[in-house]
Amino acid sequence: MSNGKENIFWHITTREQKKKVVRDKRLVEIKTRPFDPDRACRIRWIRPMLQNHGHVDIKLFYRKETRGKKPIRLYFWAHRHDFVVIVQKLGKSTSYLVTSFYITENYKRASYQKWYDNYRKGTDPALKGGEWF
User: If you placed Cys at 36, which of 15, 17, 85, 89 could pair as Cys (CB 3.0 to 4.6 Å)?
Assistant: First the structure.
């Protein structure tokens, strides 16, 4: 909890920004998370996307992450609206919201399309039998 809300609330209503500043005569990178109106105004989209994941506007796919412990995450991509919700399994019967965000860069759209296409092909051995939603 932070400021009376769960941390995930702050995560899905803000966006990380990196900035280089001079400190002690050295250039260092700092990270901030200012309010992001594109994310915040879509917060109400999350539940309907999860509940209606079979809708034609939602491209659902699993992807094995490349950082950290490399979990398999489930992506709900409202491709016509450039909005993504990511969920991860927790234990045998629970999952949790990792993040949601509005896609602003063209290269990101291309990445999501590639990941979706690769999932649909079913060629990634890491995903065999890993579907859980």
Answer: 15
Which 3 state secondary structure label does DSSP give 82? Answer: coil
Dihedral sign for Cα 118, 123, 127, 132, please.
Answer: positive
Give Cα separations from 15 to 64, 87, 90, 125 (angstroms): 23, 18, 24, 33
Q: Can you read off the two tokens belonging to residue 62? A: 């699993």
Give the distance from CA 121 to its chain's centroid. Answer: 22
> Any idea what DSSP says for residue 74?
E
* Residue 19, strand partner residues: 30
* Cβ atoms of residues 62 and 127 within 8 Å: yes
| DSSP assignment letter at 133 | -
- pTM assigned to the model: 0.85
Q: Which carries the bigger pLDDT value, residue 80 or residue 131?
A: 80
Contact 68, 55 (CB under 8 A): no
Beta bridge partner(s), residue 21: 28
| Element (DSSP H or E) covering residue 121 | helix 106-121
